[in-house]
Amino acid sequence: MNEKLLDLLKTYPGPYPRYNYYPRMTEWDNKASESEWMEILNHAKGDTVDLYIHFPFCKSFCHFCGCNIKIGTDFHDQSAYIEVLKKELKSYELQRFKIRNLYFGGGTPNALHYDLMKEFLTFLISNINKDSDFHFVSEFDLRDYNEEYLQLLKSFGMTGLSFGVQDLNESVLNIIGRKTDTNKLLKDISSLKELSLDEVSIDLLYGLPKQGSQSFEKLKELFSLNIVNKVSLYPFAEVPWFSDYYPEWDIHKPTTESKMSYFCELDAILKDFNFEQIGYGHYFKKSSEHYKDYKNGQLGRTVMGYANKASDILIGAGVSAISISPTMLKKNHKILGVYLANDMKISNSHKMTEGEYDRWKLLQSMASEYQSTELNSNSNIPDEYSRYFIPYISKQYLSEL
Fold it and tell me: Is residue 370 included in any domain, yes or no?
C-alpha cells in the first residue's frame, strides 16, 4: 500500500468537483442564448468536434445514482424521445463538422429497445462525417448482456465500451440496488474479447456500506482476463435518498480512514496488473492507446471522461446534456417532460471569460498530465495564482502521488 498517498487522503478528505467542465454550474450567469450557441457552431464549420448523446432510460434504479434517468422501457416513451433527439441533432447540422469522439451515456444506452437503437444509429451515422481519428464509446449495462445488441453497436463503428461494476461482493451490490450474478458477469466480460475493442472501461466505487476485502480476489480474477484497460475508481457520493433504501447506513458508514485504506488497496491491486493512475481515481493499462495518448500529452478531460485528443467543442444532445466551447457552456433541460415538449431553449448557460477558459485549460492539464502547463504571457490567470498556487499544488501534492 502507498502509505504516503494514504496519509495525504486522510489529511485532505472532503467532497470536491470533478471539473469535467468549468466553471461549476452554480457560477453560471445564464446570459447566453441558443442563437449564440448556433453562431459558435457556424464559425466551427469544418472543424473537429466531439458529440455526447444522453439516453436517460434504465431498467432499474441504483440507489447511489445521481444521474438524470427515467426508470422504464416502454417502447412508445422511448420512441418519442428518439424523435425529439433526432430533431435536436438535425438543428446542429452535424455534417458541417468532423466528429472525433462520440459517446453514448445515460442512463443506460442498451435499455433502449434494439429496433430503436438500430433506427437511431442509422440516422446518426448517415448524418455525420467521421474524423480520421474517430472514436465511439458507449456505456452498457452488462447485467443485461446481449451479444446481438453489442454486435449492432460494433457494426456502426463502436470502438469502446464502458460499464459499471462498482464492486464484486454480491451482498454489497444488493445493498446499492445492483443485484448481480458476479460469476456470470465475469463470464460475459470474458466474451468481450471477441469484439476486439480499443477500450473496455469499468467503474468501481469505494466507501460503500459493508465493503471490504471480500471482493479483491474476484477483482484480481477480472483483471487477469486482460480485457479491461481503463478503470475509474470513484468515491461513493452520498445522495439524500440513499438512507431511504438503506436505513442502516449510519451504522455501516465507513470511516474516512477505512474508506481511504480501501482505495489504497485497490490502487495497489491495479498497479500489480500494470495500470497507472493518470488522474485522481483514473487508471489506464500501460499497453492501452489511451495511456500512449497520455504519455504523448494528447489526452483531454471532458464530460465524457478522458478522451483521445478531445476537441475544443463538445456538442451535448438529449435531456440534461451539457455542451462546451471556449466561449460558452449550455445545458439542455433536465426534466424529460419539458425536453419531450420540443422545448429546444437552453435551460442553463454561461458566457465564459478568457480567464475562466484559461483556468479550464489549466484544470484539464492537471487532470490529464498531473502537471500544470506553462502559462504564456497572454494568459488571463492572475499572476499571483500562477506564481504561487500552481507550483504549490504541482510540487506539494501531485508529485507526491
Answer: no
pLDDT digits (tens, 9 = 90+) for 101-133: 999 999 899 999 999 999 999 999 999 999 999
Structural domain boundaries enclosing 242 = 27-353
DSSP letter at 389 equals: I
Counting the structural domains of the chain, the total is 1
| Phi, psi (deg, nearest 5) at residue 306 | -85, 130
Domain of residue 145, CATH code: 3.20.20.70
Q: Angle at Cα 309 formed by Cα 307 and Cα 310, nearest 5°?
A: 60
In this structure, is residue 3 part of a structural domain?
Answer: no
Predicted pLDDT of residue 130: 97
Q: pTM of the full predicted structure?
A: 0.89
pLDDT of residue 344: 66
**Domain membership flag for residue 130:** yes
Task: For residue 361, give the C-alpha cell.
Answer: 485549460
For the chain, give the number of residues: 401
183 contacts: CB under 8 Å, gap ≥ 6: none
Helices (H), 230-353: 242-245, 249-252, 256-272, 289-295, 336-340
Q: Given a cut of 90, is residue 174 above it in pLDDT?
A: yes
Q: Is residue 310 part of a domain?
A: yes
